[in-house]
Amino acid sequence: xxxxxxxxxxxxxxxxxxxxxxxxxxxxxxxxxxxxxxxxxxxxxxxxxxxxxxxxxxxxxxxxxxxxxxxxxxxxxxxxxxxxxxxxxxxxxxxxxxxxxxxxxxxxxxxxxxxxxxxxxxxxxxxxxxxxxxxxxxxxxxxxxxxxxxxxx
Length: 153
Prior knowledge:
Elements: H1 2-21, H2 28-31, E1 38-45, H3 60-63, E2 84-91, E3 101-102, E4 120-121, H4 122-132, H5 146-152
Antiparallel strand pairs: 1-2, 3-4
């Protein structure tokens, strides 16, 4: 429980820094409930004799209107002879019922910086994310506005 509390404190600090980096008041992202939900996962990886045969997996990008970039990553299979454990923490409202709609922060938009993504509810985003399956395409591309998709192709 103490670990979770400390991660929460750290997360609030990170959201304050991200808010300031966007030119917003330091409590902006926290006031949007970005630090409200927390999910801590841990994984146990046994040694894998053929790690090259395994596969791995991949809302800041949406609300920052592509100012912040999400890192695509995957977990590599354990090549070592001993087991390893990883612990991840995600700030997510996915487990909290909310009817809030999220989209690019209005204060970041202008004539020269039009929205890249449409607004969406957390429920719609999470449902799409879980139903799309794992591939190399980001779930976020589904929420890109049409005029932006046409320009980039």
